Recover the amino acids of this structure.
């Protein structure tokens, strides 16, 4: 009864009082979708606009909230309208991107309290329990170096697609099945078999989706691009609906979430957010000492670097936005006349990137952008979910990049582990051998390894 | 069926994630570029009165490259075979190739339907002719041989204008229904002299070679122009829907025949709920527009196009339909552009998602019969785009298909394997129209539309392409379905990939109800892919065009 009266009071008050509009002022700073290679000042302006958007606390006068829509990546109407501005579990659960991505600085990771609850958002979209049968609870990843990760993923995808094409051409020419190793930048993604009639047998793929697109973002490796992730997150976490997916073209409505605000975010706003994230500097290594140097050696000796590869080579620092690999619903290069090109080489931090003999930039990510099974019968702490995510099994995760790990405790996909020792010992499945090497090592060697990992930091 | 109808309403509410659009169409409109001549296709449908109807084409892969090739009727001019030489995403390109038919067999062709009759590696062709119908056995490399004798098939002497095929339970070979028009030899012809239709069932004794010695007349015939096997009540036993031309019948009507294995066909009657409907029926298209598992039927006619949907009074053995064309804004009863406001004449009808937005669109070929003064002379083909408001919006002019030609049969398929459906229209007394779907026109060029899937089924040794199967594709809360059918349209049929628009979904889950009723497990696939589902196999395969 009290709740009912309160609700009535709110309605009455809202109906009687004149409201004061209070938009964030961060939206619409960039009027036009960037085109071509941006100059340094143009890029800086875009980045600044993106930073402001990333930090801004969106208000209902911006369009925050989605009373009529769910968190789903496909525009989906809510079965039950909710006028609560925030809902801790299904979202919206934050006013700003930086509300979670803030450790140790804006753009960083988040503590356990910033965990989000990932669900498809189709059926049971308004779940009110953290029971894992409804959602996967996930920690907040940091975004430093994200532009280079996406560039690596694009080049690796391009390599894999070229291998597939070559195998298909050989199969058609020879009229025989052609089995090809899918290796790019030294990372093996299994094999595929091309048949003479153009069919491709995908059963031997390893750690990559069947479309051979490397998806570098999220702990599952299921997000293709910063642009896609940004659009998903804006809707999920803030109820801010970008027009390029939730607008009239795909929903016949410019207010799909029924919050009274139309065209909440334009494509140029998304570009600004992408530009800021894509140009965040890479994490660094600091405070090294003899112990840490020993730990670096042990990282290889234990076999950790089989997956946590220290650096992957990158051919180009030109970041196209929109990118080439997104599907419709996220702008891609085929949807625009001339995509914006952000030359990461224009940024001061990019000058610190080492190069290999081929002149390729070495991206020190400590990762392989590949998914692995992380549990086995006796080591299964990372198999604590019930739901697969976007076709990826419940105990399969993409190798976490270790760059920045010294700044981003706690660890694990659910931020379950407060120490590096714990998370290393939680590695099962494909990582079991390396984990056992660590477990069986001397205490001093284990200390050394951890000391080294703590030198990989995000510097403010 | 009342319970089913109530469930249907709930399903429609739950499965529709999008709000009403208040009648404004805001989705992509494809830019359709006519390039028949440039693509190398020169074929028009010619001839006197007997060829005022017909004018169809068969689209199928005759050389094993999975690209759709074409067999196009010519009426009194010879039918032609065109091999698809298009490259993926490129301009349309076809090469004429000899079909090997004699001059007699190649002429007087009204239409054709592809069908793998004998379950070998090659698709066969059913050719509708004025006079003897033909079964052409595919030999590979786009070669054919007449197989009427081998298959013990009597092509008859009728004026055949419609065809449908289906595998009845337990049969190794398809049951084939031929729709016949006017009996020109009957006294008083053409008025009231409709030829009976014919059902050809394979002999049970034949296991390796089809034997169509047995022919059952479907009497009375009412001058049919299109037939379709359809599981209208989800019984697992498709019935035969026939649309008939009131121009010539006396006391005729639309028909639905119950076809039970090993039992004589039986026409549904008024006492069984079938309502008398008299139209100038020209073409049938089936789609489950409200996602309730029960199909709707678009029937082209002169004047209003009909959309038949089950009436609340219907039951599982009571096929009572009502018309929903007006409420769906798809009557398409007169030209949507130009100054000619006389009623339209509709022929081929086909549902497909031509802009990949997840909403089915309806193509209707239009064209005056010949010189009928009471009907529109300029009568452009329709492209009725399905909107998020559940209604259809005419966008033929904007899409560029509103040409001054007299359309008849048609094929909507992806001729250049770019994920966007193209369109072939067979025209009377003028060259075919071949439209390449370029995507959405912009100030800087064309951009692609929504995501898509193209699905090929492999049912195994019998009924390889799984005629009669149902494919469902789930994205989010939306489940789309398509039936694999041979029949309907106007004198035109197609095999090959079944196309789905996915809108903004980048992944989808596919399930197949195979022709015998068994459901597959779920296959998880990524968008913008050609997918093959081999029956019984755990994984789907992707196909990549060259």
């Amino acid at each position: 009864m009290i709740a009912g009266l309160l609700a009535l009071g709110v309605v009455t008050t809202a109906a009687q009082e004149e409201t004061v509009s209070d938009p964030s002022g961060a939206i619409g700073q960039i009027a036009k979708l960037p085109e071509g290679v941006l100059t340094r000042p143009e890029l800086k302006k875009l980045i600044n606009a993106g930073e402001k958007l990333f930090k801004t606390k969106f208000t209902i006068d911006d369009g925050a909230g989605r009373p009529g829509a769910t968190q789903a990546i496909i525009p989906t109407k809510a079965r039950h309208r909710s006028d609560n501005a925030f809902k801790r579990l299904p979202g919206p659960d934050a006013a700003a991107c930086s509300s979670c991505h803030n450790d140790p600085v804006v753009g960083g990771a988040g503590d356990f309290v910033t965990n989000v609850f990932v669900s498809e958002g189709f059926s049971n979209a308004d779940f009110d329990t953290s029971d894992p049968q409804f959602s996967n609870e996930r920690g907040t990843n940091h975004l430093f170096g994200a532009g280079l990760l996406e560039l690596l993923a694009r080049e690796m995808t391009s390599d894999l697609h070229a291998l597939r094409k070559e195998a298909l051409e050989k199969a058609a020419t020879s009229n025989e099945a052609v089995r090809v190793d899918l290796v790019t930048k030294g990372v093996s993604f299994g094999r595929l078999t091309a048949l003479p009639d153009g069919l491709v047998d995908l059963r031997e793929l390893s750690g990559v989706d069947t479309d051979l697109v490397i998806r570098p973002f999220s702990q599952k490796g299921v997000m293709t691009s910063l642009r896609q992730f940004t659009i998903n997150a804006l809707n999920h976490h803030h109820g801010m609906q970008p027009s390029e997916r939730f607008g009239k073209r795909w929903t016949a409505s410019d207010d799909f979430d029924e919050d009274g605000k139309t065209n909440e975010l334009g494509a140029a706003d998304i570009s600004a957010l992408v530009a800021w994230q894509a140009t965040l500097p890479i994490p660094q290594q600091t405070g090294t000492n003899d112990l840490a140097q020993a730990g670096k050696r042990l990282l290889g000796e234990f076999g950790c670097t089989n997956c946590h590869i220290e650096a992957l080579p990158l051919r180009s620092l030109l970041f196209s936005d929109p990118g080439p690999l997104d599907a419709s619903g996220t702008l891609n290069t085929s949807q625009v006349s001339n995509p914006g090109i952000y030359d990461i080489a224009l940024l001061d931090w990019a000058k610190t990137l080492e190069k290999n003999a081929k002149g390729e930039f070495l991206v020190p990510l400590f990762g392989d952008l590949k998914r692995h099974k992380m549990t086995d019968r006796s080591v299964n702490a990372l198999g604590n979910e019930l739901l697969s995510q976007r076709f990826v099994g419940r105990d399969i995760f993409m190798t976490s990049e270790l760059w920045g790990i010294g700044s981003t405790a706690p660890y694990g996909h659910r931020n379950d582990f407060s120490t590096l020792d714990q998370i290393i010992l939680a590695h099962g499945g494909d990582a079991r051998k390396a984990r056992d090497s660590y477990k069986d090592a001397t205490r001093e060697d284990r200390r050394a390894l951890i000391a080294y990992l703590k030198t990989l930091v995000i510097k403010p | 069926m009342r319970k089913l109808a109530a469930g249907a309403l709930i399903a429609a509410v739950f499965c529709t994630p999008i709000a009403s659009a208040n009648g404004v169409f805001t989705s992509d409109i494809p830019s359709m570029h006519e390039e028949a001549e440039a693509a190398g296709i020169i074929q028009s449908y010619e001839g006197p009165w007997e060829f005022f109807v017909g004018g169809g084409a068969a689209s199928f892969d005759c050389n094993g490259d999975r690209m759709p090739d074409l067999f196009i009727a010519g009426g009194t001019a010879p039918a032609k075979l065109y091999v698809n030489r298009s490259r993926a995403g490129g301009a349309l390109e076809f090469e004429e190739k000899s079909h090997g038919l004699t001059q007699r067999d190649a002429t007087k062709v009204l239409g054709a339907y592809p069908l793998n009759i004998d379950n070998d590696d090659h698709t066969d062709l059913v050719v509708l002719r004025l006079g003897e119908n033909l079964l052409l056995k595919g030999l590979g490399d786009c070669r054919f041989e007449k197989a009427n004798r081998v298959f013990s098939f009597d092509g008859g002497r009728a004026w055949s204008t419609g065809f449908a095929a289906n595998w009845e339970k337990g049969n190794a070979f398809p049951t084939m229904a031929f729709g016949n028009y006017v009996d020109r030899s009957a006294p008083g012809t053409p008025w009231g002299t409709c030829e009976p239709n014919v059902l050809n069932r394979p002999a049970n004794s034949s296991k390796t070679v089809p034997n169509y010695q047995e022919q059952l007349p479907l009497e009375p015939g009412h001058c049919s122009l299109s037939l379709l096997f359809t599981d209208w009540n989800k019984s697992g036993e498709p019935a035969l829907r026939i649309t008939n031309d009131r121009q010539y019948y006396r006391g005729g009507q639309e028909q639905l025949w119950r076809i039970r294995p090993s039992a004589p066909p039986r026409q549904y009657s008024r006492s069984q709920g079938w309502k008398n409907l008299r139209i100038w029926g020209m073409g049938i298209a089936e789609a489950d527009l409200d996602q309730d598992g029960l199909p709707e039927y678009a029937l082209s006619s002169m004047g209003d196009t009909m959309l038949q949907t089950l009436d609340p009074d219907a039951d599982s053995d009571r096929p009572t339909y009502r018309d929903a064309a007006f409420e769906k804004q798809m009557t398409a009863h007169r030209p949507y552009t130009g100054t000619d406001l006389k009623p339209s004449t509709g022929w081929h009808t086909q549902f497909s998602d031509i802009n990949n937005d997840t909403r089915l669109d309806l193509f209707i070929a239009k064209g005056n019969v010949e010189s009928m003064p009471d009907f529109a002379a300029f009568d452009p083909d329709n492209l009725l785009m399905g909107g998020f408001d559940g209604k259809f919006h005419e966008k033929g002019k904007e899409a560029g298909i509103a040409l001054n030609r007299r359309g008849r049969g048609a094929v909507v398929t992806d001729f250049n394997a770019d994920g966007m459906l193209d369109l072939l229209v067979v025209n009377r007394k003028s060259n075919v129209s071949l439209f390449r779907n370029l995507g959405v026109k912009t100030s800087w060029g064309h951009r692609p539309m929504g995501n898509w899937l193209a699905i090929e089924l492999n049912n195994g040794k019998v009924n390889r392409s799984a005629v009669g199967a149902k494919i469902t594709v789930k994205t989010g809360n939306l489940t789309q379905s398509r039936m694999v059918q041979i029949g309907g349209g106007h004198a035109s049929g197609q095999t090959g990939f079944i196309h789905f628009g996915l809108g903004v979904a980048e992944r989808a889950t596919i399930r197949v109800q195979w022709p015998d009723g068994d459901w597959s497990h779920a296959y998880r696939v990524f968008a913008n892919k050609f997918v093959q589902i081999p029956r019984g196999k755990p994984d789907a395969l992707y196909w990549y065009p060259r």
About this structure: Chain A has three domains: 10-141+221-278, 146-201, 284-310+364-457. Chain A touches chain B through 47 residues (CB under 8 Å). Residues 311 and 364 of chain A are 4 Å apart (CA to CA). The mean pLDDT of chain A is 94.
